[in-house]
Amino acid sequence: MICRNGRKNLTGFLTLKRILKITKTLNHKMGESIYDQNRELQRKLDQFLKQARANEKKQELYETFGFEIIGANTPKQLRDLLLSQIISRFQLLDVVLCLVDHHKDAERLFFDHDEEARLLLENKLLILDTLKDVEIIHTLVSHPLLGVEALKRYPWMIANLKTRNQIKSAAFLPLLRSDRITGALMMLSHDPHRYQEGVGTLFLQKLSAMTAVAVENCLNQQRLKEISYQDVLTQAYNRRYFDLRFKDEIARCIRWDDDLICMFLDVDYFKKINDTYGHQIGDLVLRRMVSLIKEQVRSCDIVARYGGEEFVVALPSTSLQAAHEIAERLRQAICSTTMNFMNKQFTVSVSIGMASLRNMLTAQQHDVDFICSAMLDSADKALYEAKEGGRNQVAVYADRIS
Hints:
Layout: H1 2-70, H2 75-89, E1 94-101, H3 106-111, H4 115-121, E2 125-129, H5 134-138, E3 145-146, H6 148-153, E4 169-177, E5 180-189, H7 201-229, H8 239-255, E6 260-267, H9 270-277, H10 279-296, E7 302-307, E8 310-316, H11 320-335, E9 338-341, E10 344-347, E11 350-356, H12 357-360, H13 368-388, E12 394-397
Parallel strand pairs: 1-2, 11-12
Antiparallel strand pairs: 1-5, 3-4, 4-5, 6-8, 6-11, 7-8, 9-10
Helix pairs in contact: 1-2, 1-7, 8-13, 9-10, 10-11
């Protein structure tokens, strides 16, 4: 009996010991499991924190750039931000800005007679005409497209880029104002995983919206500035604007060793026109003069009313021989045009005087203000010579300043 009880108690003791061992083993395993779970949770938390910090930096980058483009004071500044700085800021391969030219002035406003920039950026700033490019405009969607889909749908946007063969992914960002498509921004990358459908669209949508606002505001501000720079009667530039631009062109041509021509034009016997036909007809003649001048010169040339019946034209990057041909062609076009206003028909002629930057420069004299005054004075003297020589002719000032 004792033995049996002893065996029974021993059996119970061994069972309890085994249970404790099992329990200890289970607790150890549970501890390891909880530790592994905690470690996995910590790893995921670290990933979330890392992603959150990256998103904060990305948001700061996009917002900072967005505020910069909205704060751009001139189309030139905006052009530099959207077509140059954006590449380094966002580590892109390239970028293309496409604009729908609703006001027929986007190209002129963005390049402002800067032929160097026009040639450099002609494949990165695409201007769409609302009549000629209507079919292309209708293909522009109002939502972002990411990845290869953007490249497949809009291959014409990258067709002339030197980097086109390196492009692996893209972000197409539509520019919208008042539910109307005003253009698109195409951000390009050599990384095939950089832009993927549905990934990171919030930041891109914000950038798209801020770009649309920036372009509209900047161009409208420039249009207002140009109104103050225009002669009210003829719509040519006024003297104030010409003086500012002429100095800039002189500095640029000196820097690039280009020639620059200053051309003065004066309507012959204009007082007689006013006395014979009235000042209203005289005003119409001046308007027609500007129209005829603009037909003969390039869009990058600067046409201004300098005072009364006198006009001035700056011809950047133009040789004296080429300018003389332009002047002669212009003189002939004007004198062969019949003015027909209010049932009154008559012809007019102009006298033209020119001066060349190259004939103004000396080794010692490169002061822009001095050269500006000297060129205007020289062109005016040439105009006087043309008047004294019988009018309706072109004269060139050839003396070199000292």
